[in-house]
TrEMBL record:
The keyword Isomerase applies. Its EC number is 5.3.1.13. This is Arabinose 5-phosphate isomerase KpsF. Residues 11-67, 85-143 form the CBS domain.
């Protein structure tokens, strides 16, 4: 089955960005306060990289916020975004289809795809969860219609 619907139809247009030199403490605050799993790294407005909540988890000391936290543990919060981000993320352009996104998820070990415009500015993000929601909705529609 081919899915020619545009990724713009299912992407989250709520894109939260950070800069290369932002501290991981700021990244941690964003992840702690927002229900998201990925931040896009931009320089001005051009996409340069991506940070997942798992990237942050690996970069920070597990003792942060505990009674055994040391100065060395706390210092991991002072690392910078550029030190842990994934550079040159796999992206799709705004005119791509859901089929294109499925192809990238099937051939790469990624959990989201930034959607960019022709100037490489992020306009949205598609996760594998978005794909599953879409496929589930299509399946329900087909079931209701008797297809």
């Amino acid at each position: 089955m081919e899915y020619t619907t545009s990724v713009k139809e299912i992407m989250s247009s709520r894109v939260i960005t950070v800069q290369l030199d932002d501290k991981l403490s700021a990244v941690k605050n964003i992840f702690d306060s927002c229900k998201i799993h990925h931040l896009l790294v931009v320089d001005d407005i051009e996409l340069l990289g991506i940070i997942s909540d798992r990237d942050l988890f690996k970069a920070l000391s597990p003792k942060i916020g505990t009674s055994t936290e040391s100065q060395k543990d706390a210092a991991t919060l002072n690392k910078r975004v550029h030190q842990i981000m994934t550079r040159h993320p796999i992206v799709l352009h705004e005119d791509a289809t859901i089929d294109d996104a499925i192809g990238l998820f099937n051939t790469n070990i990624i959990s989201c795809i930034p959607i960019v415009n022709s100037a490489n500015r992020p306009i949205g993000i598609v996760s594998w969860r978005d794909i599953l929601k879409y496929l589930g909705a299509i399946g329900r529609v087909n079931l209701i219609q008797g297809n």
